[in-house]
Amino acid sequence: MILLDGKKTSNDIKDEITIKVAELKAQGKKTPHLAAIIVGNNGASVTYVNAKVKACEKVGFESTLVQLSEDISEDDLLAKIEKLNNDDAIDGFIVQLPLPKHIDEHKVTLAVSPAKDVDGFHPENLGRMVLSLPTFLPATPYGIVQLLDRYNIETSGKDCVVIGRSHIVGSPMSILMARNTKVGNCTVTLTHSRTKNLIEYTKKADIIIVALGVPEFLTGEMVKDGVVVVDVGITRVEDASKKSGFRLLGDVKFDEVAPKCSYITPVPGGVGPMTIASLMMNTLQAVENK
Ligand code: NAD
To answer: Are residues 257 and 195 in the same domain?
Structure first.
């Protein structure tokens, strides 16, 4: 079993970006600038946004954090987004999800200019992805593709099962794995909460990408020997022995599944850091697109 080390791979990517940023600066060009909007102070969201800001500093980007109160109105949030759309200093920005219930996530996604949508959530960018046109790929699926690519995992002709059909992970992931690209050319089955006899699919799969947010959902008996497993799930569970008071669990019962795998991502240190690296790649791309 080989661990797909997202922490190391993301650091490799960040080192590559650091060199490119230094080159841009040496040529007197603009320093890439990523902004992040966060609404409220959900613990996990704050952690993710802070990690993104820290990654910007590491690669030499400029970053701006826009912190908004939990009770901001939808109109006021849309106005902030419009301001970032029109700010030439900002190359790309994200709106950290989830948003409070009174705000329509779709409206927010549509409000972000596709040229600055470095999370790759705008329908225009998703459409371009489906057509294999240049675009910002959604950050988490893009990170997974990078990880599989950099470990030279053969995907062509393989049976790939994706568990979870969210707009930000499962659905785009299923499309990327079926595309006619180096990482791709799989026969993909997209499964979800209404799938019957999931085990019949997972048992046959060569590659399983698990993104449902149910800790330790995928168990040893559900997979065959030699499978490649990518665990997207991150759930905080209380743990008094930890300084933070919680630990992170993935969607895979690691102790049971890992011994059967050819490759597997750990949680933490797998997909999470790759998502941030993708965001950095997309932001650099936004500058290069100008
Ligand atoms: P979501 O809650 O939007 O969607 C969950 C999906 O799982 C749904 O499509 C649902 O149909 C499916 N599902 C639920 N129960 C199921 C079952 N019993 N069998 C099969 N499918 C089932 O989830 P999301 O936003 O894609 O997030 C999934 C997990 O990934 C969460 O733990 C989230 O925190 C994590 N996540 C991690 C990263 C990262 O960078 N590592 C990024 C995004 C999300």
So the answer is: yes
Which of 113, 147, 174 finishes a domain? 113
Q: Does residue 170's CB lie within 6 angstroms of at least one atom of ligand 1?
A: yes
Convert the pLDDT of each residue in 8-31 to its tens digit. Answer: 999 999 999 999 999 999 999 999
Domain that holds residue 109: 28-113
| DSSP 8-state symbol, 258 | G
Cα–Cα distances in angstroms (integers) from residue 256 to residues 5, 6, 83, 247, 260, in the given order: 19, 21, 49, 19, 8
How far apart (Å, rounded) are the C-alpha atoms in residues 79 and 111? 9
pLDDT tens, position by position, 121-179: 999 999 999 999 999 999 999 999 999 999 999 999 999 999 999 999 999 999 999 99
Atom of ligand 1 minimally distant from the CA of 170: 26
CATH number for the domain spanning 260: value is 3.40.50.720
Tell me which residues are annotated as active site: 52, 96, 119
Ligand 1 centre to CA of 212 (Å) is 3
CB burial class (10 A; 0-12, 13-18, 19+) of residue 107? middle
Q: How far apart are CA 118 and CA 251, in angstroms?
A: 26
Sheet with 92-95: strands ordered across = 62-68, 33-39, 92-95
Cα 37 to the chain's mean position, in Å? 17
Q: How far apart are CA 56 and CA 34, in angstroms?
A: 7
Q: Which residues of 11-50 are buried (b: 16+ CB within 10 A; e: fewer)?
A: eebbeebeebbeebeeeeeeebbbbbbbbbebeebeebbe
167 lines ligand 1 (CB under 6 A): no
Total tally of structural domains belonging to the chain:
2
* Rounded CA separation 185/253 (Å): 28
Tokens, residue 13: 């990517």
